[in-house]
Amino acid sequence: MLGCASIAERRMLPSMLAQPRVELVAVASRHAEKAERFARLFGCEAVTGYERLLAREDIDAVYVPLPPSLHAEWVRRALLAGKHVLCEKPFAATLAEAESAVALARDRGLLVMESFMFLHHRQHAEVRRLLDEGLIGEPRGFSADFGIPLLDGGGGHASTLPEVAVYPIRVAEFFLGWELEVLGAYERCDAAGEFAVAGDAMLRAPSGVIAHLRYGLEHGYRAEYTWWGSAGTLTVRRAFSTPDDHAPVLRVECRSGVEDLVLKPDSQFVNIAGFFAEAVLDGGEFRTHADAILRHAELLDRVRVAAQLGG
Ligand SMILES: NC(=O)c1ccc[n+]([C@@H]2O[C@H](COP(=O)([O-])OP(=O)(O)OC[C@H]3O[C@@H](n4cnc5c(N)ncnc54)[C@H](OP(=O)(O)O)[C@@H]3O)[C@@H](O)[C@H]2O)c1
Q1: Given this model, what pLDDT does residue 69 score?
Q2: Looking at ligand 1, which atom is closest to the CA of residue 30?
């Protein structure tokens, strides 16, 4: 792993330890003490400096949970060092950056995957199954929201807007496919006009379904989506950063009443770690994951342009 990040400490590294197909060899930090703290916590080696870790020959793949502005540079360096890469979202700041990393990975025969853990929680496949069964009739509309509050004590923003925007946009792609038209998008900046803090996007699928997506950095916590059909609605709360012990509740509201379908907990982080390892170890299909990075980056670019144009 490159960078002793909070998400790695809280979710990814404990999950890698629980995933039998992954062996955590070493963690790298810019600071020796930090790497050592992580190494003690997770029973692996500490390395000072990311380049040193990449130079090691006993490492097949790296997990990159660096701040988004550093993803492109360190994904490139990892690929040049011959490592497969699981990179945190957003994989790249622009489509051009994503294209350049994917081209390098393809050239070297290496796997690059964007770490959308939530896609590996089985609750979404279950929603898809229920929709296909016609539980809420014909799908008419979709909405998804992800927002997080400001840090406590006036500490500012915990993330950048793209880091939260990618969740509603990626879940729309999951359900509605890649061929999404951007009907409009809007971004609101902070009072100084420098930092984007909230956004909305409206997308249209070839089926005619419209997706309304909202995201923000100064909001009460919200991570949910709703499918609206001709016969009712289906809502999933805790849709994105779902805790391992959370039993998901799919709320179905139809003319006959309200029903909560409770699912078994699932660990999306353990699942994605296994999924990534399987692709590397069993010679999985690398192209699908690289294509997903490109299609997603391309849509993010179109949403960004629409927002710059003012909707
Ligand atoms: N998939 C998910 O569920 C999920 C959830 C939260 C966050 N994320 C994503 O994961 C990534 C990391 O997020 P995080 O909140 O965990 O970040 P974080 O705690 O700030 O960690 C980022 C790490 O990057 C390293 N780093 C290198 N240069 C840095 C610099 N100039 N400034 C700050 N850090 C630097 C630091 O490690 P060293 O000091 O050890 O070098 C730092 O600990 C982001 O892309 C974020 O969007 C994903």
Answers
A1: 97
A2: 41
Of 76-85, 170-179, 186-195, least confident by mean pLDDT is 186-195
Q: Contact, 27 vs 38, CB < 8 A?
A: yes
Percentage of residues in the chain having pLDDT higher than 90: 93
Distance 134 CA to ligand 1 centre (A): 41
Which residue in 34, 83, 89, 264 is the catalytic one?
A: 89
Q: What is the CATH number of the domain that holds 289?
A: 3.40.50.720
Q: How far is the CA of 306 from the centre of ligand 1 (A)?
A: 28
Rounded to whole angstroms, how far apart are CA atoms 296 and 114?
10
Q: Which range of residues forms the domain containing residue 104? A: 6-118+271-299
Cα of 48 vs centre of ligand 1, distance in Å, is 16
**pTM (two decimals):** 0.97
pLDDT of residue 244: 97
250-259: per-residue pLDDT in tens?
A: 999 999 999 9
The answer to whether position 192 is within a domain reads yes
Q: Which of 2, 48, 88, 97 is the pocket-test mutation for ligand 1 (most atoms within 8 Å of CB)?
A: 88
Atom number, ligand 1, closest to the C-alpha of residue 28: 40
Asked if residues 280 and 60 have their Cβ atoms less than 8 Å apart, the reply is yes
Per the annotation, the verdict on 83 as an active-site residue is no
How many folded domains does the chain comprise?
2
Q: Where are the beta strands (DSSP E) in the chain?
A: 26-29, 45-48, 61-64, 84-88, 112-115, 139-147, 181-189, 196-204, 210-216, 222-229, 232-236, 249-254, 257-262
Query: Does the C-beta of 216 come closer than 6 Å to ligand 1?
Result: no
